[in-house]
Design brief:
The complex is a heterodimer of chains A (336) and B (290). By secondary structure, chain A is an alpha+beta fold. Helix content of chain A is 27%, strand content 32%. In chain A, a hairpin with a 2-residue loop joins β9 and β10. In chain B, β1 and β2 form a beta hairpin. Classes of the chains: A alpha+beta (336), B mainly alpha (290). Chains A and B meet through β6 and α2 of A and α8 and α9 of B.
Chain lengths: 336, 290
């Protein structure tokens, strides 16, 4: 296992600067998730760690050794791609052993490692099949197995679950989590799905427009977001934000441009501070809870409600919040 | 299904069936019938003579020479054409900056008619005023009389044929290469493969359907080459560029031995069929359709 140090890394494609002096330290054995919206530069950063892209400036170090000019094969990294990137003309066995054969690993050792990976990932029955004969989940396991057999210092995952259906995604997420606990491998995982980020990460690095917005453990980001972007990105449903006259009701401090509170701290029956009457525009029942969408003085709010006593769509209801759980942001989106 | 609906597919197929029947199937059957006949060129009377035409053919040293020439021509055109076009396509695929201009440049010869292309090569190969010997002279090499020398004539015709077909092959290879996901090459790079290993283990197997198609078409085209031979060498010198097709042409339209020429057509058809079957057999083992 190895640490990864990203120091002031910039990346430009022609005139476009996609990464702006990003710095991030990843400890040995840590599982760090890079999360952010499409186009924020997270995959580019991962590809630079892999050696598939060169940084325009800055340094990337693996195990304290600068690897900017080291070719991908010599960095000791393995990558799981979004579209699996399995060799379609090779069997699962050949897919797993290809890298080892190139590295001239003895056949007995190759056989041992392939067998071990196949057992861990439940692929023993599929070793002689070609990728075209496998399901999406099985393909993803082969892609992970290919990374595992190489025994890399760092695992890189580039949105590995985004091609799977919702149910399989949850299952594979659990498997990746188990695998990490078992191998304790340093892992960098890119996703735009904040649920994946929250459930898998030791630490999450939230990226936006080529910059790191905040780095911290999942709970820290949820409870203590430093910017409006992080507050809105982490958490499902997204945080409620109010602006304008509602800020007076909340008694927001000077300089506040917007205030945010989470749906679980937005109440319909009773609460500390009333925001006034709003109209119910949508009810999303999810079994034990429901999300009630309300339009209130030009603001769109979501309330998480337990039980089944939901208001009717189109009815009016009073909205309350817990003012001790409100986050305030200035005009730059920074937390006050 | 009512009667009208059941006739519709036949109605739609009719034009194709009619054209194929008139211009392909009927002449093919006629050729087969004629190959067992002796046809008098002037009276147009014909007599059934069994396999006599085939016997004459197999005993003819000229025919065996043309078979040898065809084999050599096949090797001199198909292999270089595939290797060169694949190399250029791989280069263009890796360097998109050059792709548009060079693609047009390489495709130009395909757009020129084979007679025009052959005329161009007559100028290039001209022993006294040609460009080729001029450049060889500059390098201090005394160039041969390319089209009149029995040692170089077939090579010269083959070069012009490869040049003419290069663009067609490059376009197909480029299309095949662009269909290979870049992630596979990146995965191989991370697996530790160098450029050649990526080409050998990833690119080539995934390009195999295109490679198979292009090689099949190249073999058939090579076996059917006529225009460039007719204009460049008319089968000479000393029969060194007389291929099976050119021999067939001469027997049919110069010597008016229609029956014999028909038997040559049947043999050529059989050879192309065998070559294609062999390629399909090999394809089963070597071609990967994803």
């Amino acid at each position: 296992m190895a640490s990864v140090e990203i120091q002031k890394v910039r990346k430009c494609f022609g005139e476009t600067e996609v990464l702006k002096e990003v710095s991030l330290s990843i400890r040995e054995g840590e599982f760090v998730v890079l999360v952010g919206p499409s186009g924020c530069g997270k995959s580019t950063l991962l590809r630079m760690v892999a050696g598939l892209e060169l940084p325009t400036s800055g340094t990337i170090s693996i195990d304290s050794k600068v690897v900017n000019t080291v070719p991908p094969k010599s960095r000791g990294v393995a990558m799981v791609f979004q579209n699996y990137a399995l060799y379609p003309h090779m069997t699962v066995r050949d897919n797993l052993s290809f890298g080892l054969k190139l590295a001239h690993v003895p056949p007995s050792e190759i056989e041992k490692r392939v067998k071990e990976a196949a057992e861990v990932l439940g692929l023993v029955k599929h070793l002689e099949k070609k990728p075209g004969q496998l399901s999406g989940g099985q393909k993803q396991r082969v892609a992970m197995g290919r990374a595992m057999v190489r025994q890399p210092k760092v695992f890189l995952f580039d949105e590995p679950l985004s091609n799977l259906d919702a149910q399989l995604r949850v299952k594979m997420r659990t498997e990746i989590s188990h695998l990490h606990r078992r191998l304790h491998a340093t892992s960098i995982y890119v996703t735009h799905d904040q649920v994946e980020a929250m459930t898998l990460a030791d630490r999450i690095a939230v990226m936006n427009q080529g910059q790191l917005e905040q780095v911290g453990n999942p709970l820290e980001l949820y409870q203590n977001p430093r910017t409006r972007f992080v507050a809105s990105f982490i958490g499902t449903p997204s945080m409620n934000f109010v602006e304008g006259e509602l800020l007076y009701l909340i008694k927001a401090p000077h300089g506040v441009v917007s205030a945010g509170f989470r749906p679980e701290n937005t109440f319909l029956k009773q609460g500390k501070v009333s925001l006034g009457q709003g109209q119910v525009v949508l009810v999303e029942p999810l079994g034990s809870i429901a999300y009630i969408h309300i339009s209130l003085k030009g603001n769109y709010l979501v309330s998480e409600m337990k039980g089944h006593d939901w208001p009717e769509i189109g009815s009016t209801t009073e909205v309350f919040i817990d003012d001790s759980k409100v986050f305030y942001f200035d005009s730059q989106g920074k937390r006050i | 299904m009512n009667r009208r609906a059941s006739l519709l597919p036949w109605g739609l197929l009719f034009p194709t069936i009619a054209i194929l029947s008139i211009f392909v199937i009927y002449p093919a059957i006629q050729s087969l019938i004629l190959s067992f006949q002796d046809v008098e060129p002037l009276s147009k009377r014909s007599f059934f003579i069994g396999f006599e035409n085939y016997e004459v053919l197999l005993k003819s040293p000229d025919y065996w020479q043309s078979a040898r020439v065809t084999g050599s021509f096949l090797l001199l055109t198909v292999i270089p054409s595939l290797v060169i076009s694949l190399t250029i396509a791989v280069f263009l695929d890796a360097n998109p900056f050059f792709q548009n201009g060079f693609r047009t440049l390489f495709l130009l010869p395909v757009a020129i008619s084979s007679s025009m292309a052959a005329m161009l090569w007559i100028f290039i190969y001209n022993p006294t005023a040609g460009f080729l010997n001029y450049f060889l002279d500059v390098l201090g090499i005394h160039g041969p009389n390319w089209l009149a020398d029995p040692d170089t004539a077939l090579i010269a015709v083959a070069i012009s044929t490869v040049w003419k077909e290069l663009g067609f092959n490059i376009i197909f290879f480029l299309a095949g290469l662009s269909a290979i996901p870049n992630e596979l090459k990146e995965a191989a790079e991370l697996d530790g493969a160098n450029g050649w290993q990526i080409f050998r283990n990833v690119t080539l197997p995934l390009l195999s359907p295109t490679l198979f198609f292009v090689s099949l078409v190249s073999v058939i085209n090579s076996l059917q080459s006529f225009g460039q031979i007719h204009i460049l060498t008319t089968g000479g010198p000393m029969g060194e560029t007389t291929t099976l097709v050119y021999n067939l042409y001469r027997d049919a339209f110069v010597k008016f031995r229609t029956g014999l020429a028909s038997s040559e057509a049947v043999v050529l058809f059989t050879l192309i069929m065998i070559a294609t079957t062999i390629q399909f057999r090999l394809a089963k083992k070597r071609v990967h359709y994803g």
